[in-house]
Nopaline-binding periplasmic protein (Microvirga aerophila), 281 residues
Amino acid sequence: MRLIKLASLSLLSAMLTLGGAAAQQKTVRIATEGAYAPWNFTGAGGKLEGFEIDLANDLCGRMKVKCEIVAQDWDGIIPALNAKKYDAIMASMTITDERKKVIDFTIPYAHTPSAFLAAKNSPLAKMPGTGQTFNFATQQAAAEKAINDVKPLLKGTSVGVQVSTIQANFADKYLKDVAEIREYKTTEQHDLDLSAGRIDAVFAGVGQIMGTLEKPEFKDYSIVGPSLTGGVLGAGIAVGLRKDETDLKKMFDEAIQAAVKDGTVKTLSMKWFKTDVTPQS
């Protein structure tokens, strides 16, 4: 009888332990913009979709946590993180020195350069450097020459950028002396003005531009001039976290590293961009 009682108590203890573990499964709230296709966007029925939505769910599975993804306007996404409205940001956010002053970042899960998008029949289609990529971090002289070479064609034009982005910072530093820089709340808004002829070009991330070029109304547009990265354009796209979240950062870093190593990031890249945005070591 004593043995039966002990066995029953052991079984009950195990059940309570398992039940408690399930009940205590950590929920990680992840914010995304929901308006930056194909990285993240709001699809039919208001459902969030895109590369980062798929990747976020994959990473949460690896971390063995429940994933809750919420939409947040871009211009308030960092303040809301630090106000603890959610735990992490996955919104095509590039690592920059300025952002590192207020939040922390994981290792990069993607990397794409920035470039100009313009109509194929516009004077900007003749920009030198088309098809070439320059890195301000490792090729500063060549990158600065590349941007100086396109300035004559940009003189007197209007260029759209999304507010509070690395592209806006780049335009402020390198282009405001030759072109009118117009800032937009979302990339969808500057794409609309471009297709309507209200601006001459947009300067945006190549990943986002690839999504734009999939739309029928942009069949007569293309990437023009050099593609640029590094410097004020940052050092890769990563998960944004509060500075005190060291354990969560470790979990994300390990999950991202595994997703890169086993080819998941590449597979999702090809699905959403038709090109590999896996960060190169």
